[in-house]
Structure formats: structure tokens, C-alpha cells
TrEMBL record:
It is found in: Nucleus; Chromosome; Chromosome, Centromere. Its main location: nucleus. This is Cohesin subunit SA. Residues 1048-1060 have a biased composition (Basic residues). Residues 269-354 form the SCD domain. Pfam families: HEAT_SCC3-SA, SCD, STAG. Part of the cohesin complex which is composed of a heterodimer between a SMC1 protein (SMC1A or SMC1B) and SMC3, which are attached via their hinge domain, and RAD21 which link them at their heads, and one STAG protein. One of its GO terms (cellular component) is cohesin complex. Residues 1035-1047 have a biased composition (Low complexity). PROSITE patterns: SCD. GO terms for molecular function: chromatin binding. Residues 1-52, 1030-1069 are annotated as: Disordered. Component of cohesin complex, a complex required for the cohesion of sister chromatids after DNA replication. The cohesin complex apparently forms a large proteinaceous ring within which sister chromatids can be trapped. At anaphase, the complex is cleaved and dissociates from chromatin, allowing sister chromatids to segregate.
Length: 1207
């Protein structure tokens, strides 16, 4: 051992080989150690023993794992054993760390005494069971989580209990640190993880000891100064001597602690914070954050902060998350901001960019950290930085949006001068001082240019700005108050935005859950949340019962504002009307709604009025009768007006003027909107609507808007009649009457498909699809056989008309429109809207195919457009294909081949019989066939018959028409075989032979001998059927393989081969499937021995016997097993950098960097101690230190790792 005077600079290690010095306790002899063993946990020869009768645990690992004893008592027992025999106690501690790594090996006393740490670790590595997978510190389950907690607590309590004596004996800590350093450099990840976690917790405990020493030093120094400043007569020299001695002892202890921390930091942290395993890196960053917060005088400086800054660029989210949380703990304390100033300037951009991190948890913590930086210093963030966070309030991920809302609240919506705002509110007569803040919210919403996302903005701010968002009185006052001279009034756009925000806050308060698109659904509210929801609902109801009629009266001419305001009643607690005797306010609301209905014909406004009436007419409320009377009066007036205007319009016929048309259209729009939510069958609107439609068909001059509305209103009337019939016990006359109505309406809609006006045709098409779906065979399911008279099945004529409509109005090119509309945002929006409309048309028709209302072959005309219109309708067509295959695999396969045949015929018509097989059109058909083949999936047994049928139809189509020039020329459709070959890979080996035999029936002898280019499709198709027999062996036998269990013997791991189907079973499957072929077509026979296919390769294939094939399968399975088993090797490179440990990114920087605790506040400079390399003043004063050890503290490059970009 080294002299005590040099202990501050010595290299640390396990001092097990040297003779003890004079100031050390002599080691006990082996005979003495036997006494210690008897008093401690039972051991024999240094190896822990278990009680045979299942008694108490006897090893330190078992005690900590069970956690039955308090860590204090466990540590005290260990200290007692250490005092008796420190070698055996340390051996128990060493085995504790080894066993915590999941290693089954044990260090014995002779190994501990006679072997170096590297040799011990090598021995333990050899005994490490790589197949066990048992690693206590990362195993799931509550027991192992508790074990990890106990593990960390044990180390902390151990240092705390040993801090006054044992840790300074230059034996225990040297041994532990040396062992952990060696383990942390192991290639076994479990050793590295365990030792790193232990070392970091050890370092944290030592930092706490150092902090206590610093406090004791400061106290001792103050006592010494106070005693020395006394007059000579009162000064106690003995006390001064004691204080000096105590100060010297504390200083020596501090030097020793510094030396220990240097060893851990330089030997473990600087290597492991870049470890290949993310969890190890996360441990290092988490603990360095604890050191900086716990002992900021020593650790909160740029020399340590740089590690956190560099690791912000880590590629694993969990490590970045630890960095952000460590920084949050520092930025929470405003007193630490001066020390973080340089770090903030250097890494602020990175932190702000992390608010867009792909890991949502990281993004949330980054936003919270930016919020803390904002709280600490308003000037730290630029406007651009803030704007990067602002837009996240519209994020679909709610935690990100809420964190951004907190930032926005701190930045914009915190009151800067509450007294002035309250004075202004009193001056204006407002009850709330939040007027300016609400104005600020409106301005922010408008400037964000995402007006349709008001609900998202409100939800983001709900947790942080709830008091502001629930200030409905202030919002109403801003909307209703008259402008005052000198104060800026709300513009029309601002009023619309404020109304929209108000409605969103009302919805959020009443429903108490996020808007659609945020969150995973409605969660169960707690009792407190439920009470808050009820209180908020009562509060908003009581306020808006009185305020809403006034708001509607003021804005009744503005359709957008009125449509938003009319959403408010659906969130009312309607019992308040009767309980609070507020019927007069209900009458005022109904009056305003009536005025709105009479004044507007916009669909949004009318639907909002209809919905409001529907809510107010709920039978559960006592106000229902009052509202029903008002609604009936309104409907009576509108139906009378409608009947009168229809008569006038039909009488005038072609001479009708604009006023006649407007009267019919306006009334019909109102009635249609109400018929959607209300049963108006007693007013018999269908009759007049049908008259209008028939007149339009006969005369051909009906305005398109009237026709569209009449179609929609008639549709609603039919649905309400169906509802009445299904809910009651209908008579035969009722069924006949409804059938007559439906039949006549379907005929009218069919006639409207040929209308010159596109909106009329589209409306008729959608209603036809809906009604055919509703009145299909599905109607009588569920025990409703009595409704059989109402079932309608479309005839072939109607099916063809529907299909032609889809082809004419859905699959259209818009290149010309795209060029004319380019660059215009409004036109872009119109194009998107038109695409949505076409998608709805296609989906409506595909739904008829899926539910077997329209014959499946009609889908061929849809499927053939899959590639060309993939971006627009690919998802709809693919889903239709999937659903039809589930209905009938064989018919679906026939439909697929039919679609390819249609495309091929179209190509023949365009190019003639001499096709250019290299053209893009042919390639497009082949690519479509390839896509269709992929949809059959990997299970060839399930799709066997369907694929075989597809080939049969394809072969028949290819040879359907002979070439008029003679038999020596190829059939006209022969090139289709090249398309058909795309499906050959989906045939199993047996079926390939069967299909080839079927193909030969259509071939003459001369065909098989032809080799000209025009015969290449036939040659290619034949080759696709004749090849792949051996390769398909594994798929035919459901993944057969040879017995590979003996090839590779991994301890405790089962072989990876699959079970092989027995020969008898395979033969049975083969015969049964081929039998189905025979039944489907008796002319299709299983061929005999096939002729050897001609080889197209320049390398001749040798005949491979069955044994050779089986060997290849066995070798493949073996190699696959190796790759699976070695996917996560237990041994690996332990550094993230490929340059290796010797080329550390800051090797020179770290080798010279040591931990030096700062001088105590009242302590004089120490002459013989190292300079304080982390003290900026010392660095500036000592130029040599600055050049030798660290770059200048104020240099930005101080944070950049030499030779390696932190990204």
C-alpha cells in the first residue's frame, strides 16, 4: 500500500497482495477468520451455504432478494462481519454483485486471495450460462422490481453506514471499485449492466458523503475563525488545536472521497455513458443528473453538463428521456440558472428540436423542459423557438398537445399586470378581468390558420388555462357589448372565432373528454371529475339559457355564427328550465330558432335548428310538450306553403319564374332538413316530392336543386315509414303500400341516372345504392321474415346502369382540370372535395357487390382499375377484393381473371393482334396480375382450388380464338399466357402438373416445338409450370424438414424444426385435391410422367437424389436456427463508437480530468492540493491548466466532443 501522504494521487485497485503497512490493521490468520465465519451468515471455505431445512437465507444476495429485513439491519450485519473478517465479508459482497448479474458461478476464498480481478472475471465469464436468460435486475414482475430497488438501497445504506470509518481504510472501497471497474469493461452485458448500476449508485452515495464533509468543514472553519478571533485571555488553545486537527482530518477524508469518485468517474462513467446498451447509457445519465442537483457546487458546471448535452443526440428514446428529466430537475431550481447559462445557449436549439421527437414521451418532456427554461428566463427563447412549440397544441397526440398548452399558457395567457386588468374590467363594467386574455386567445387562434381545429386548441389548454376557458360570462360580454370610444372592437372574423372557441369550451366542459381524434376513447371519470362535470354543466346551462337568445338575436343574419351558436343547447341540462322556472327563456329561444329557420336556407343552419328541436323534444323532459307545439306549428306552416308553391310551379310549368322556383326550393330545403331528424310522415311529403320528380322527368326542365332535395326528402319519408313498420306489427296492406312507394321511387331514381345534371345523377345513384342495401335480403334476417314483400333484388338492367355510372363518373382522368387549377388553394380544396365524392360513389357500389346484391362478376370492371387509380381508390378496391374472396374464393378468382381478360381485349382492340409485349401497356397488365397474385397470401392449401380455377379459365381464354391465318400461327390471345404466368407461383407442385396436363390438351404437336418470338408466352408459361417442383417441396408438405435436433445442441433450447407431414397424409391431401379437379371438369386429368423440361441456363442441373434434398433442407433449418439464436449475442462490442476504447472521442480530455470538490466557503487556499479544474476562475488564472486540461470555459467548442459529432 502507498503512504498516506500520497493517497490522494495513487492508482486505485484491490490491495490484496502487499503486506500491510504500519498504520493498517494486520490481516487475520486463517484460524482467526474461522471465528468470524461462525458469527456471520453460514459459509464454508468462503462459499455461501443454504440451510437444508429451508431456513433463513444465508447469502447476501438472497437476503436482499427476499427483502424481508430492513436494509439498515442487513448492512449492519455485514459491517459486523467485516470487522470480524474483512476478506470473507468482501467475498460475500463480491459474490453478491456476481449473483445479481445472473451468473451461477461463485468466487471462492482462494480465488479472491490468489487471483487478480481480471482473472476472476474471466473465470466467472466462462461459468456464465448464456442460455438461462435469468438476469434479476431486468426480469419482469413485482418481486424483481422490488429487488432492483433493494439492490440500489443496499449500496446507498452501505456507504452511509460506513462513511465515518470503513470507507477510509483503503481496503474495502479499493476492492469494490476495482471489481466494479473490471466488470464494467466485460463483454457480458449482464456484468456491465450490474456493475454500472452499482457503481453509479455508489458514486451517488459518495457524493452525499462529500456534501456532508463540505458542510462539516465549513462549520469547523467557522468555529476555528471565531475562536481565533477571541482576545488572548479568552482564547482556548487546546480547542484551537482540536479544531485544527479536526479540519485536517476532514480535509484528508475529503481528498480520499475525491480519489474514490475520480476512480469511478474515469474508470466507469466516461466509458459506459457511451455503452452499446441503451439502458446502461440511461443509468449513467440519470445518476449524473442526481450528482449535479445534489452537489451543484462541485458537479453543476460545463465539464459535466457536456455529457448530458452530447447524449441529447442519443439514438434511443429512453436515453434522451433520461437526459431531459435530469435537466428538468436542474432547471426547476431558479438559483441554478446562472450556472446553466452557457449550456442553455449551446444546447437550446437541440432541446427545442426535440419537441418534435419521434418518441412521444421524449417530445412531452422536451416541451416541459422548454417551459422550465421559459419560466427561468424570458429572454432565453427566441420568437422562432416559441413558435416551434406553439403549433404543437394542434398535435393529435394529447400529452404532447397538453404540454404545449402549458407552454402557451406560460408565454401568452399569464396575467402580467393583474391590478391594471381588474381596473380596466371595472371601468368597462365587466365581471371578469380576463377580457384581454380572451382577445389574445382569439388572435392566436386566427393567426395559427388552423380554424377547423378549435376543439384541439381548447383541449390542449384545458388543464393549464381552465379558469380562462370557463369564463363564459366574459366571452358573452365581449360578444354582446357595444363598442366604446378608444377601445378596439372585435372584428367580424374575431367574433366568429370567439363563438367557435366558446362552443368548444362548452363541449369540453359538458362531455369531459377530449375531442374526436385525441385519446383512445372515453375513459371512466373519477368521482371528483364527475362532480366537476355536473357543476360545469349546471353553470353553463344557467348562463346560456339567458344569454343564448340574446346572442341569436344579435347574430341571426350570420349563418356561420348562428350554426355554431345552435350547437349550445345540446349541452344543456334541460331540467333547469322547469326546475328554475325559466320557461320564458325557453320561449325566447324557440322564437329565435323559428326566426332563424325562416331567414336561412343554408343546410348547416337548418340542420342545426332541426337538431336543436330534436333535443328539446326529448320525452324525458317536461318541456317536451311546449317544444312539440312550437315545432308542429312551424311544420304546419312550412308544409302548407310547400304544397301551395308546388301547385303553382306545376301549373306554371315552363313559364315558372325565379320566385316560384325559389319558393319551392327554400321550403323544400327546410322540410328536408327537418325530415332527417323528425318523423313527418303524417304530413305526407312524399306525394308532392314524387310529383315534382315525375314532372321533371316528363318535362326535362326541373331545376337540379329542387330535384336533388325532392329525392332526399322522399328517401327520408320512405325510411321513416320503414321504421314504423319494423317497430310495430304491420298489416299486409301496410307492407303492400310501402312496397308500392319504394318500387315507384326506385324507378324514378333509375330514370334520374340519365339526367343531364350531374348532381341529380349522383344523388339518385347514392339513394339507389342505399335503398337496395336496406331493402335487400338482409332485411328479413333476425326473425323478420314477415318483411319478405319489401325485399328488392336489382335486375340485370339496373345493375348494368349502376356499373356504367361508376365507370363514367368515378374512373375519370382529371389532367386537364389539374392543369387549369394548379396553384389555386381554393381549387385544390375543391379537387379534394370532388375526390371524396367519387370515393363515396365507388364505396356505395362496392358495398352492393360485397353483400351479394350485385353479381360479383361486375367487380371485374372495378378490379381492372386497381393499378391505374391506386392512389385514389386503391384501399377501397383492395378491401372489396378481400371481402369478396371471403364470400366465394372461386368466384372471386374467376372475377380477377375476367378483369385481366377485359384489359387484354381492350389492348387487342387498340394495338391489333400483333402485340408489342415490351410495351408499357402489357407491362401494366402483368404488374396488375402480380399484385392480384400477392393477394392470395402464403397459405397455398386454402387458395388451391381458386388458383387452379383461375389458370383453367386463363388457358381457355388464351386458346379461345384460333388465328385466321392458319394453325401455324399462334392463337390471337396466346400472349395472355404471359400474364397468366404471374399466378404460377401460387400453384402447389401437384397442381402445376395438373394444369400443365390441361394446357397440353389445347396444344398441338407443332406448338410444343415452336421457338419463334411469337410463341414465347407459351414457352414462358410452360416453364413456369414445369419448374419449381423441388423448391415447392417444403410448402407442399407444410414446412417439412429433416430431423435437425441432433445437428445443433443448445443447452435447454428445443430444436427449431417443424413437424413433418407423414407420407400417407401427404398422399391423402394430394389425392383429395386432385379429385376435386376431376369433379370440376371431367376432361381435366392428372398427367402421367412429365417430360424433362428444357434447361434455359448455361449450367446443367444435376439430378439430386432425395437424400441430397433432405440434407439441403436440414442445412437450411440449421442455419436459420443459428441466425435466430445469435440474434442477440451475449458477448458484444461494449462501445457505441466503432473506433474502440483506445480511440475514445475525448480520450485526452478525460485522462486529465479529475473530480475535485470545491473549496469550502471560509477555507484558505491549500498549497499541496490539485488545482480546481472545474472552477472558471482557476482556469482563467492558470493558463497552463487551461491549455493542458480543458479548453476555455466560455468557448462553445467546449461542448463538442473531439473527433465525433454528437449526432
Amino acid at each position: 500500500m502507498e503512504d498516506p501522504e500520497a493517497k490522494g494521487k495513487k492508482k486505485r485497485g484491490r490491495p490484496g497482495k502487499q503486506a500491510p503497512t504500519s498504520n493498517k490493521k494486520p490481516r487475520k490468520s486463517p484460524t482467526d477468520k474461522a471465528v468470524g465465519v461462525a458469527r456471520g451468515r453460514g459459509k464454508a471455505n468462503g462459499v455461501a451455504q443454504h440451510n437444508g431445512d429451508g431456513g433463513d437465507p444465508v447469502t447476501l444476495f438472497e437476503v436482499v432478494k427476499l427483502g424481508k429485513s430492513a436494509m439498515q439491519s442487513v448492512v449492519d450485519e455485514w459491517i459486523e462481519s467485516y470487522k470480524q473478517d474483512r476478506d470473507l465479508a468482501l467475498l460475500d459482497l463480491i459474490n453478491f454483485f456476481i449473483q445479481c448479474s445472473g451468473c451461477k458461478g461463485t468466487v471462492r476464498i482462494e480465488m479472491f486471495r490468489n487471483m487478480q480481478n481480471a482473472e476472476i472475471i474471466r473465470k466467472m465469464t466462462e461459468e456464465f450460462d448464456e442460455d438461462s436468460g435469468d438476469y434479476p435486475l431486468t426480469m419482469p414482475g413485482p418481486m424483481w422490481k422490488k429487488f432492483r430497488y433493494n439492490f440500489c438501497e443496499f449500496i446507498s445504506v452501505l456507504i452511509r453506514q460506513c462513511q465515518y470509518s470503513i470507507i477510509y481504510d483503503e481496503y474495502m472501497m479499493d476492492t469494490v471499485i476495482s471489481l466494479l471497474t473490471g466488470l464494467s469493461d466485460s463483454q457480458v452485458r449482464a456484468f456491465r449492466h450490474t456493475s454500472t448500476l452499482a457503481a453509479m449508485k455508489l458514486m451517488t452515495a459518495l457524493v452525499n458523503v462529500a456534501l456532508n464533509l463540505s458542510i462539516h468543514q465549513d462549520n469547523t472553519q467557522r468555529q476555528y475563525e471565531a475562536e481565533r478571533n477571541k482576545i488572548a485571555g479568552k482564547r482556548a488553545n487546546e480547542k484551537l488545536e482540536l479544531l485544527l486537527q479536526k479540519r485536517k482530518e476532514l480535509q484528508e477524508n475529503q481528498d480520499e472521497i475525491e480519489n474514490m469518485m475520480n476512480s469511478i468517474f474515469k474508470g466507469i462513467f466516461v466509458h459506459r455513458y457511451r455503452d452499446a446498451i441503451a439502458e446502461i447509457r440511461a443509468i449513467c445519465i440519470e445518476e449524473i443528473g442526481v450528482w449535479m442537483k445534489m452537489y451543484s457546487d462541485a458537479f453543476l458546471n460545463d465539464s459535466y453538463l457536456k455529457y448530458v448535452g452530447w447524449t441529447l443526440h442519443d439514438r434511443q428514446g429512453e436515453v434522451r428521456l433520461k437526459c431531459l428529466k435530469a435537466l428538468q430537475n436542474l432547471y426547476t431550481n431558479r438559483e441554478l440558472f446562472p450556472k446553466l447559462e452557457l449550456f442553455t445557449n449551446r444546447f437550446k436549439d437541440r432541446i427545442v428540436s426535440m419537441t418534435l421527437d419521434k418518441e412521444y414521451d421524449v417530445a412531452v418532456e422536451a416541451i416541459r423542459l422548454v417551459t422550465l427554461i421559459l419560466q427561468g428566463s424570458e429572454d432565453a427563447l427566441s420568437n422562432e423557438d416559441c413558435e416551434n412549440v406553439y403549433h404543437l397544441v394542434y398535435s393529435a397526440h394529447r400529452p404532447v398537445a397538453v404540454a404545449a398548452g402549458e407552454f402557451l399558457h406560460r408565454k401568452l395567457f399569464s396575467r402580467h399586470d393583474p391590478q391594471a386588468e381588474e381596473a380596466l374590467a371595472k371601468r368597462r363594467g365587466r365581471s371578469s378581468p380576463n377580457g384581454n386574455l380572451i382577445r389574445m386567445l382569439v388572435l392566436f387562434f386566427l393567426e395559427s390558420e388552423l380554424h377547423e381545429h378549435a376543439a384541439y386548441l381548447v383541449d390542449s389548454l384545458w388543464e393549464s388555462s381552465q379558469e380562462l376557458l370557463k369564463d363564459w360570462e366574459c366571452m358573452t360580454e365581449l360578444l354582446l357589448e357595444e363598442p366604446v370610444q378608444g377601445e378596439e372592437v372585435l372584428s367580424d372574423r374575431q367574433e366568429s372565432a370567439l363563438i367557435e372557441l366558446t362552443v368548444c369550451t362548452i363541449r369540453q366542459a359538458a362531455e369531459a373528454h377530449p375531442p374526436v381524434g385525441r385519446g383512445t376513447g372515453k375513459r371512466v371519470l373519477t368521482a371528483k371529475e364527475r362532480k366537476t362535470q355536473i357543476d360545469d354543466k349546471n353553470k353553463l346551462t344557467e348562463h346560456f339559457i339567458m344569454a343564448l337568445p340574446m346572442l341569436l338575436s344579435k347574430y341571426q343574419a350570420d349563418s356561420e355564427k348562428v350554426a355554431n351558436l345552435l350547437q349550445i343547447p345540446q349541452y344543456f341540462d334541460l331540467d333547469v328550465y322547469s326546475a328554475g322556472r325559466m320557461e320564458k327563456h325557453l320561449d325566447a329561444l324557440l322564437k329565435q330558432i323559428r326566426l332563424v329557420v325562416e331567414k336561412h336556407i343554408e343546410t348547416d343552419v337548418l340542420e342545426a335548428c332541426s337538431k336543436t328541436y330534436s333535443i328539446l323534444c326529448s320525452e324525458e323532459y317536461t318541456i317536451m310538450n311546449r317544444v312539440d307545439i312550437a315545432r308542429s306549428q312551424l311544420i304546419d306552416e312550412m308544409t302548407d306553403r310547400f304544397a301551395h308553391s308546388v301547385e303553382e310551379l306545376l301549373q306554371e310549368a315552363e313559364e315558372a319564374d325565379d320566385d316560384d322556383i325559389y319558393n319551392v326550393l327554400s321550403t323544400l330545403k327546410r322540410l328536408t332538413a327537418f325530415h332527417n331528424a323528425h318523423d313527418l310522415t303524417r304530413w305526407d311529403l312524399f306525394g308532392n316530392c314524387y310529383r315534382l320528380l315525375k314532372a321533371g322527368i316528363e318535362q326535362g326542365s326541373m331545376p337540379e336543386q329542387i330535384a336533388v332535395q325532392a329525392l332526399q326528402c322522399s328517401h327520408y319519408s320512405i325510411l321513416w315509414q320503414l321504421v314504423k313498420i319494423t317497430e310495430g306489427a304491420p298489416s299486409k296492406d301496410d307492407l303492400v303500400a310501402l312496397r308500392r312507394v319504394v318500387k315507384s321511387f326506385l324507378a324514378v331514381c333509375q330514370q334520374c341516372l340519365s339526367n343531364v345534371n350531374t348532381p341529380v345523377k349522383e344523388q339518385a345513384f347514392m339513394l339507389l345504392c342505399d335503398l337496395l342495401m336496406i331493402f335487400s335480403h338482409q332485411l328479413i334476417s333476425g326473425g323478420r321474415e314477415g318483411l319478405q314483400p319489401l325485399v328488392f333484388n336489382p335486375d340485370s338492367t339496373l345493375q348494368n346502369e349502376l356499373l356504367n355510372f361508376v365507370l363514367d363518373h368515378v374512373f375519370i382522368d382529371q389532367d386537364d382540370e389539374s392543369q387549369s387549377m394548379e396553384g389555386d388553394e381554393e381549387d385544390e380544396a375543391n379537387k379534394i372535395e370532388a375526390l371524396h365524392k367519387r370515393r363515396n360513389l365507388l364505396a356505395a357500389f362496392c358495398k352492393l357487390i360485397i353483400y351479394d346484391i350485385v353479381d360479383m362478376p361486375a367487380a371485374a370492371d372495378i378490379f381492372k382499375h386497381y393499378m391505374k387509380y391506386y392512389n385514389d381508390y386503391g384501399d377501397i378496391i383492395k378491401e372489396t377484393l378481400s371481402k369478396t374472396r371471403q364470400t366465394d374464393k372461386i368466384l372471386c378468382a374467376k372475377t380477377l381473371i375476367l378483369s385481366l381478360q377485359q384489359l387484354f381485349n381492350e389492348l387487342l382492340q387498340d394495338q391489333g393482334p400483333n402485340l408489342d409485349r415490351t410495351s408499357s401497356h402489357v407491362s401494366g397488365i402483368k404488374e396488375l396480375a402480380r399484385r392480384f397474385a400477392l393477394t392470395f397470401g402464403l397459405d397455398q392449401i386454402k387458395t388451391r382450388e381458386a388458383v387452379a380455377t383461375l389458370h383453367k379459365d386463363g388457358i381457355e381464354f388464351a386458346f379461345k380464338y384460333q388465328n385466321p391465318r392458319g394453325p401455324e400461327f399462334p392463337p390471337i390471345n396466346l400472349a395472355f399466357l404471359e400474364v397468366l404466368s404471374e399466378f404460377s407461383s401460387k400453384l402447389i407442385r401437384q397442381d402445376k402438373k395438373t394444369v400443365h396436363s390441361y394446357l397440353e390438351k389445347f396444344m398441338s404437336e407443332s406448338m410444343s416445338e415452336r421457338r419463334e418470338d411469337v410463341w414465347l408466352p407459351l414457352i414462358s408459361y410452360r416453364n413456369s409450370l414445369l419448374t419449381g417442383g423441388d423448391e415447392d417441396h417444403m410448402s407442399v408438405t407444410s414446412g417439412s424438414s429433416s430431423k435437425t435436433g441432433s445437428v445443433r445442441s443448445k443447452k435447454g433450447r428445443p430444436p427449431l424444426h417443424k413437424k413433418r407431414i407423414e407420407g400417407e397424409q401427404s398422399t391423402e391431401i394430394k389425392s383429395s385435391v386432385e379429385g376435386s379437379w376431376m369433379m370440376r371438369n371431367d376432361t381435366l386429368q392428372t398427367p402421367g410422367a412429365l417430360q424433362t423440361p428444357q434447361l434455359t441456363s448455361t449450367v446443367l442441373r444435376e439430378n439430386r437424389p432425395a437424400e441430397h434434398i433432405e440434407f439441403i433442407c436440414m442445412l437450411y433449418t440449421y442455419m436459420r436456427g443459428l441466425m435466430e439464436d445469435d440474434a442477440e449475442p451475449i458477448f458484444e462490442d461494449v462501445m457505441m463508437s466503432s473506433r474502440g476504447q483506445l480511440e475514445d472521442m475525448n480520450e485526452e480530455f478525460e485522462d486529465t480530468m479529475v473530480i475535485d470538490l470545491p473549496p469550502s466557503r471560509n477555507r484558505r487556499e491549500r498549497a499541496e492540493l490539485r488545482p480546481d479544474f472545474f472552477d472558471s476562475a482557476a482556469m482563467i488564472e492558470d493558463e497552463s491548466v487551461s491549455k493542458t486540461f480543458l479548453p476555455p470555459l466560455l468557448s462553445v467548442s467546449h461542448f463538442d466532443p473531439p473527433g465525433l459529432n454528437p449526432t
